[in-house]
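Long-time lurker, first post. I've been practising inverse folding by hand and with some scripts of my own, and I keep getting stuck on stretches where the structure tokens seem ambiguous. Below is the full token string for one chain I'm working on. Before anyone asks, I'm not after the true native sequence, just a reasonable design that respects the backbone. If someone could post their per-position residues I'd love to compare against what I wrote down in my notebook.
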């Protein structure tokens, strides 16, 4: 039996045991995450969809429902199914807001994911509102030097870059790089990616020498990792 067939059989068994009430929500989420990580999106969709119903047994507004919805939306997003992902993220956001209030990291995560979706659709005003709010919540709860803040800064920078606002993108990426260099090892992949993104923003501003310096640092790290 091929690996793909084994994955589909495993997903089918998960769905069968869920429908019979024999599968726990935690086990279903683990199976869905495993399928998602392997890129088995159809199977992940089926498992998470069934897991939503399982989670609803705890109450329609239980946090576990929101967690499952978020994973289902992530599965849609990974396939480029942004129209399908948006209402699912919105439902998860609504539940998180009801459970936690407005200022919570779960709320920030959903705002971030929705903001990225709107950016990919070219809906920049909505994306900026959502991503800015996500950044503000993370800074308030975690402080300015947390990796989650760096992620929010990078996502907001990508939006400004898409809008052609290189100066704002550059400033945000400078902050993101500073946080990641402070919190991560010098050769961490996120540091390398931020160096590349920052260099790209500088090139758009015709700051070639600074861009080349950052690209040189990124290339040196990649060479070190390979050796």
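-- Answer (accepted) --
I ran through it position by position. Result:
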């Amino acid at each position: 039996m091929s690996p793909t067939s084994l994955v589909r059989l495993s997903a089918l068994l998960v769905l069968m045991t869920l429908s019979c009430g024999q599968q726990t929500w935690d086990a279903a989420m683990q199976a869905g995450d495993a399928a998602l990580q392997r890129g088995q999106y159809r199977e992940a969709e089926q498992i998470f969809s069934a897991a939503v119903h399982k989670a609803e047994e705890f109450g329609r507004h239980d946090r576990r429902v929101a967690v499952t919805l978020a994973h289902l939306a992530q599965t849609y997003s990974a396939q480029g199914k942004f129209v399908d992902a948006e209402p699912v993220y919105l439902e998860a956001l609504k539940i998180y807001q009801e459970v936690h209030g407005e200022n919570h990291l779960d709320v920030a995560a959903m705002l971030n994911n929705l903001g990225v979706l709107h950016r990919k659709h070219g809906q920049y005003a909505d994306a900026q509102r959502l991503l800015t709010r996500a950044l503000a919540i993370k800074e308030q709860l975690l402080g300015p030097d947390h990796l989650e803040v760096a992620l929010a800064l990078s996502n907001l920078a990508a939006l400004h870059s898409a809008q052609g606002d290189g100066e704002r993108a550059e400033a945000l990426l400078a902050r993101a790089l500073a946080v990641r260099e402070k919190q991560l090892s010098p050769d961490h992949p996120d540091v390398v990616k931020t160096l590349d993104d920052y260099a790209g923003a500088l090139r758009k501003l015709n700051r070639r020498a600074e861009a080349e310096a950052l690209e040189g640092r990124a290339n040196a790290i990649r060479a070190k990792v390979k050796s």
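A couple of notes from the structure itself: The chain has eleven helices and no strands. The mean pLDDT is 91. Happy to go over any region you disagree with.
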